[in-house]
Specification:
The protein is mainly alpha-helical. The chain has one domain. The chain is 94% helix and 0% strand. The chain contains 2 helices and no strands. α1 packs antiparallel against α2. The radius of gyration is 35 Å and the shape is rod-shaped. The chain starts with a helix and ends with a helix. The mean pLDDT is 82.
């Protein structure tokens, strides 16, 4: 009976060793998965910060454009007032006023184009942010 019990004890010890090895492997896999998730979250955070900086820069540029346009409008109004008070509406003055109006309209079109481009960029950045967050959470791109 003793050889059988010794064999059973050896088998039980081998099973216990296999169970311990499986537990170590599972713990290692869990630690690696946790590190991967933390790395993905850190990358998503960096990307979000970069996008926020880009949005702030775009907003600042838009504000600068609006300020420039206001200044140009004020200058044009002053010039038009000077022309009407200093001289009669002769052909030269009319031509100058027409050119100024055309320039102002072109500047407004340019500003509208830039604003549309900025809005499109912001929408694309929001879409990328959603994709990054979903891929970091699930491991799959949505």
């Amino acid at each position: 009976m003793e050889p059988v019990s010794a064999a059973a004890a050896a088998a039980a010890a081998a099973a216990a060793a296999a169970t311990a090895a499986a537990a170590v492997a599972a713990a290692t896999a869990a630690a690696a998965a946790g590190a991967a998730v933390r790395g993905a979250a850190a990358a998503a955070e960096r990307q979000q910060q970069q996008q926020q900086q880009q949005q702030q820069q775009q907003q600042q540029q838009q504000q600068n454009l609006q300020q420039q346009q206001k200044q140009q409008q004020q200058q044009q109004q002053q010039q038009q007032q000077q022309m009407t008070t200093q001289c009669c509406p002769c052909v030269v003055c009319q031509n100058q006023a027409t050119q100024q109006q055309q320039q102002q309209q072109q500047q407004q079109r340019n500003q509208q184009q830039q604003q549309q481009q900025q809005q499109q960029q912001q929408q694309q950045q929001k879409k990328k942010k959603k994709e990054t967050v979903s891929s970091a959470a699930t491991g799959y791109r949505v």
